[in-house]
Amino acid sequence: MADKDDDELNLPRAALNKMIKETLPNIRVANDARELVLNCCTEFIHLVSSEANDICNKQQKKTISPEHVLAALDSLGFVGYKEEAQCVLQDCKAVAAKRRRASTRLENLGIPEEELLRQQQELFAKARQEQAEVEQREWQQMQLQAQHVAAQSVPNKDNDSVDDDDDYS
């Protein structure tokens, strides 16, 4: 059970291995060294998050914000990390803003909502009309087929005009 709890509190090993391989592509890193890096990363995250939580509580806030994390890095003396974290934060904000802009493309078309609704209603009406026409053609086709079948099943009077009179002479 302790191993499971430890796994939940650690960074994923695959992510750490990928980071090591990308950072040091031509160097082989021993498993003990990987384990040490993993433990250091975990401890660093716990330290920064604990400090950010303390700062958040002092400000009587309930949610840790990026500013709390940056203040924690500053108060712990990780100014170099703080600058890098600010750059990453700006990148994340830019990506989030881009996603928001992409999701509001419809709003940015410049067409009022009433006009869009009117166009939608026109399209629905046109689709209903086309569907009704298709159904009408199908009905007419079925009627023609039924008439054709009925005409074939009725005995032909010309062929039946054979002398039905019995000759009793």
TrEMBL record:
Subcellular location: Nucleus
Gene3D superfamilies cross-referenced by the UniProt entry: Histone, subunit A
Keywords: Nucleus
Main localization, broad class: nucleus
Biological processes, Gene Ontology terms: negative regulation of transcription by RNA polymerase II; RNA polymerase II preinitiation complex assembly
Stored InterPro entries: CBFA_NFYB_domain (IPR003958), Histone-fold (IPR009072), Ncb2 (IPR042225)
A single MF term (Gene Ontology): RNA polymerase II general transcription initiation factor activity
UniProt xrefs under SUPFAM superfamilies: Histone-fold
Family: Belongs to the NC2 beta/DR1 family.
One Gene Ontology cellular component annotation held by this UniProt entry: negative cofactor 2 complex
Keyword S-adenosyl-L-methionine on entry: no
Organism domain of life: Eukaryota
Protein's recorded name: Protein Dr1
